[in-house]
Every structure is written in structure tokens, then in C-alpha cells.
């Protein structure tokens, strides 16, 4: 420690002339800094601060715009979903209407076909009955002629044929 306190320029030795020069240099440096360096630095800092504020304001405006657009998009999406549901509902209703119309039309056509088939069957039945009666009449006449030839009693034979024919008409 004695080495440090010795007058040979140790660390803790103080030189007044040197200190004054350091003080004058420091004051000159501060004067030059305050006069020439600080104003441009302050201007640059203020410009930077202004740019940051403008950027923040722009960002806030952009966020507000984005939120508005997002809300508009959500509303448009909800509206589109509602419209799509309406379209689906209308399509289902229309399909049901078409289906019921086709079913009723098919029923009408089936009823017409059944009625035509009944009429046709009735016509064929009547024709078959006419043909059957004609055939029976022919058979009756043939039977009568055979009986007449065998018995030669006209009154009896006519009575038999008339009874036979009347029985046929009843059935």
C-alpha cells in the first residue's frame, strides 16, 4: 500500500494541474455537445417518437378497420347461412310438393287404368255371356232337333226348350 501512496504517480496520487485540464476539457466537450450534437440528436429522437406515434395510430386504425371488416364478414356469413337454410327449406318444400303431385298423378293414372281394366273385363264378360248364350241356344236347338226327331211331339219339345232357355236366362 505504501507503494500506491508514494509520490511517484500512484493510483491515488492527485495532480491539480491535470485535474484542471480534465475539467476544462470536460466543460469544452459538454459545450460542444450541447451546442452541436444534442440538438440534432434531440430532433432525431423527436422525429423517431413522432414516427412511432404515427405508426401506433396507424396500427390502431388498421386494427379497428380489421375488426370492423371481421364483424362485417361474420354478419355476412350469418346472413349467408340463414339464406342457405331458407333455400334448403324451400327446396325441401318444393321437392315434397313435387313428390305429392307425382303420387297423386300416379294414383289418378292407376285409378284410370283400373277403371279401364274393369270396363274391358265387363265388356269381355258381356261378350262371353252373349257367345255362351248363342252356344247354349245352338246346343238347345240341336238337342231339340234330336229330341224332335226321336219323339216327334212338338208341343212337348217346345216346352222343354222354353224351360231350358228360361232357366239359362235366370242364371
From TrEMBL:
Alphabetical list of InterPro entries matching this protein: ATP_synth_B-like_membr_sf, ATP_synth_b/b'su_bac/chlpt, ATP_synth_F0_bsu_bac, ATP_synthase_B_chain
Gene3D superfamilies given in the database record: F1F0 ATP synthase subunit B, membrane domain (1.20.5.620)
TM region(s), chain numbering: 18-38
Cell inner membrane found in the keyword field: no
Entry-linked SUPFAM superfamilies: F1F0 ATP synthase subunit B, membrane domain
Lipid bilayer topology: Single-pass membrane protein
Keywords, sorted A to Z: ATP synthesis, Cell membrane, CF(0), Coiled coil, Hydrogen ion transport, Ion transport, Membrane, Transmembrane, Transmembrane helix, Transport
CDD domains hit by this protein: ATP-synt_Fo_b
Location in or out of the cell: Cell membrane; Endomembrane system
Chain coiled-coil ranges: 42-138
Function noted in UniProt: Component of the F(0) channel, it forms part of the peripheral stalk, linking F(1) to F(0). The b'-subunit is a diverged and duplicated form of b found in plants and photosynthetic bacteria. F(1)F(0) ATP synthase produces ATP from ADP in the presence of a proton or sodium gradient. F-type ATPases consist of two structural domains, F(1) containing the extramembraneous catalytic core and F(0) containing the membrane proton channel, linked together by a central stalk and a peripheral stalk. During catalysis, ATP synthesis in the catalytic domain of F(1) is coupled via a rotary mechanism of the central stalk subunits to proton translocation.
HAMAP family: ATP_synth_b_bprime (MF_01398)
Annotated PANTHER family: ATP SYNTHASE SUBUNIT B (PTHR33445:SF1), ATP SYNTHASE SUBUNIT B', CHLOROPLASTIC (PTHR33445)
Oligomer status and interactors: F-type ATPases have 2 components, F(1) - the catalytic core - and F(0) - the membrane proton channel. F(1) has five subunits: alpha(3), beta(3), gamma(1), delta(1), epsilon(1). F(0) has four main subunits: a(1), b(2) and c(10-14). The alpha and beta chains form an alternating ring which encloses part of the gamma chain. F(1) is attached to F(0) by a central stalk formed by the gamma and epsilon chains, while a peripheral stalk is formed by the delta and b chains.
Family: Belongs to the ATPase B chain family.
Protein name stated in the entry: ATP synthase subunit b
Native source species: Gracilimonas halophila
Lineage: Bacteria, Pseudomonadati, Balneolota, Balneolia, Balneolales
Gene transcribed to yield this protein: atpF
